[in-house]
Batch of 2 targets.
Target 1
Amino acid sequence: MESGGFDTHIIFHSIPFLAKGMLLTLELTVLGIGGGLVFGTLLALCRLGKFRALAFAAGTYVNFFRSMPLILVIFWFYFLIPLVVGEEVGAFQSVLTAFIMFEAAYYCEIMRAGIQSVRVGQAHAGQALGLTYQQNMRYVVLPQAFRNMIPILMSQAIVLFQDTALVYVVGLSDFLYSADIVANSENRLMEMYITVAIVYFSMCSLAQFLVRNLQKKFAHE
Amino acid sequence: MNETKDTTGTDGGGMIEMNHVGKWYGEFQVLSNCSTSVNKGDVVVICGPSGSGKSTLIKVINGLEPFQEGTITFNGVSVGDRTTNLSKLRSQIGMVFQNFELFPHISIIENIKLAQMKVLGREDDEARNRSMELLERVGLSDQRDKFPAQLSGGQQQRVAIARGLAMDPIAMLFDEPTSALDPEMINEVLDVMTELANDGMTMMVVSHEMGFAKRVADRVIFMDEGYIVEDCSKDDFFGTPRGDRAQLFLSKILTH
């Protein structure tokens, strides 16, 4: 700490730059969750479905990705996809693809547990009314599965929010990496790293607070 | 009520025909050589000790449970045939469950509207009107915007009956409709069912409510260990039950 003291000025000064980094972090989180949830739900339906080959393929996919460190998956998509496709896909696209593929494996297992938590009688009731399998899933089973799964889906989302910090390995400036750039160029490590910690802490706490309220709201119904 | 719908295509047999039906859960046989026939307008009460296969017997009729042996036809359509459109067949058979199974995430009226719109293709207005008609019939029109958990068990079961009727089914299956209810709520549900029976609805009812059976059943089926042991008119059943098991069962159930 050659410069000495705690310089709050540098924090305010770098807000626009950090905000840009946070935007990327949020973008990756939201798109990663959205894509992962859709793909993960499809995988869960395959795993629970009656087509053995699909169930096996989905199961293998899930086990495979759950055995891999996220950072390795990020490397793969960044370095291997261009080799396969034959052209550059860009850091953002490759990282986003990695997140979606990786998160889908976790969301699949969460959704599978969620679907199984809906009583079989509910599915029977939908079937008995003449709903097709797809309609029954869409209108009866999945809405209830999602509700049961909100707490764990959200904690997985919060993990992803933190994991986006790994994108520095392919040179993307997310929130942490932006702060890191400022910290090193201005030699203000303490200020920046403490700010980053406070921001991550506040955002995750806020998310958890919102989830609890959401749960209370559903509990009334 | 227009319960008297077209039921042609029955090949001269009953609306529900079961022939030598057998079903296994793995090694365990739950239904053995079950045959019976239910005509249009019949009210059949199915009773027997727990685990005797009563619920399974009605769940194979609309294909909720698969069976491995024998044949079942509903309104002339083979249930076990792989080419049969089971969803379409099920939409013609109302079903009421022991635990009501209303959909907890949507309101009462949406519970009744859902399948009308998604299966029968009714417009929102039409489905709403039909739902309100039926809610009035079961005496719950003022509860339409509540959620299932806000209703008592008896009220939920009446909604479940209304939900089944909204599809204009030609038969109704009841799987122990009152056994999850507090005693003071049983009658409100049985009253709705009695009225339905008097209107000529074809009904199969798994129930231990022998008073209800005596009042409205045409026939009583008694099951034990997966077999249909008695299948006779209500008068025969309550007058001179033949088997020992049925006698024992009746003496136990009628004394309290």
Target 2
Amino acid sequence: MQKGTWTVKAGLARMLKGGVIMDVVTPEQAKIAEEAGACAVMALERVPADIRAAGGVARMADPSIIVAIIEAVSIPMMAKCRIGHFVEAQVLESLGVDFVDESEVLTPADESHHIWKHDFNVPFVCGCRDLGEALRRIAEGAAMIRTKGEAGTGNIVEAVRHMRAVMAGIRRIQGMTTDELVAEAKALGAPLEPVMEVHKTGRLPVVNFAAGGVATPADAALMMQLGAEGVFVGSGIFKASDPEKVARAIVKATTHYHNPEIIAEVSKGLGAAMAGLDIKAIPPEELLAPRGW
Amino acid sequence: MERIGVLALQGAFVEHIALLRRLGVEAFPVRLRQELRKLDGLIIPGGESTTIGWLMQEFRLLEPVRKLAGQGFPIMGTCAGMILLARRVLGLNLEPLGAMDMDVRRNAFGRQVDSFETDLEIPVIGAPPFHAVFIRAPFIERVGDGVEILARLPDGTGIAARQGKMVALAFHPELTNDLRLHSYFLGIVRGDVER
């Protein structure tokens, strides 16, 4: 009997496919998420919109919040650590979280290196903006990838940019001849092995979700049609005027992402979505997506 | 050619469809109740049982699947699918299908760090052992008279069962390259495998 293997780590990500992972800050929110059909919750001290507003250094959540949320729900529970902060990751693993998100939403602890994730029994999910970044994270041991988008904005534009970049990168590699792959790996800044795998299979070696800006059912379905295998919704649910209704609607739209009649039906009367931010109005030094190397 | 539907509300349904196609049957996703028509068998995949169960309820799939099960229709459930087929589930906030006379415990082995892979002896598929992947898996707490346990862990824990034309597995054959359990289910669909 073997635990913590690559198969069980990447396998949990595969069980999350087609689902919605929701940011929650209290056990009550976690219960609402579970009852609304979330396939997992992400436990945080503050949702990204509030992290953005608060400024300062954003760190791993207080373990007491994480434990309270673990006890509140039966679905998988994720929590965020800072980029490169392997001790925060060790703490999260010891608390029993099911997935660690090495996240650009928190303030990076290391500006050159990410965590060597193969050392852990708990699986990791990491953000990316393009294929090279995705493959570097996978080489370090990420069992799941999410495109970054721009968290806490309620604006889908960056999520679309990143998903399109990843999918275009995959199609490009797929169309290459084998002798072109070494130069491509060099250009991507990614190891050759996962580049060869993408060439052969036409997909990332792990599951890829969309994150960072999903605020409506149509946003979720858009990301699914662009190639996401599921979605993370951060501030979009509990910053909406009727979180329960928005949560249910986004879960249904993610399942029926190819069915505009159902998306129309679930989008009726949802109340105010989160206000949202124009990316161009954010000072460049406050953007979260460029964090990660 | 047999037509097998794979419930595609959430979870690892693509993997099941790919394995079934390798076995030469017609396999396609089922998301709406009208897609349950003209099927020879149904697979309920792994995923989150609360999510799949809630979506089945919202899209009115619980009753038609319950009815099919009652008519002796072939259904195979893996992990979340096993949970949904059970009569009673410990740790589920909604009512399962109740298609098989067994009680199942959710997340029975613990959290994700306790997920594991191991080789299983499964007499109905013969040698060699089946390499089984258990992810936040359930196990069987109790079965009724009509339910046969197909496999156990070395400590005796029941992790695979059959009742009539229904098969429930606590692990994920869809995550491996071993087609034998899908073949076994297709044998039941075709009527080749008798009790």
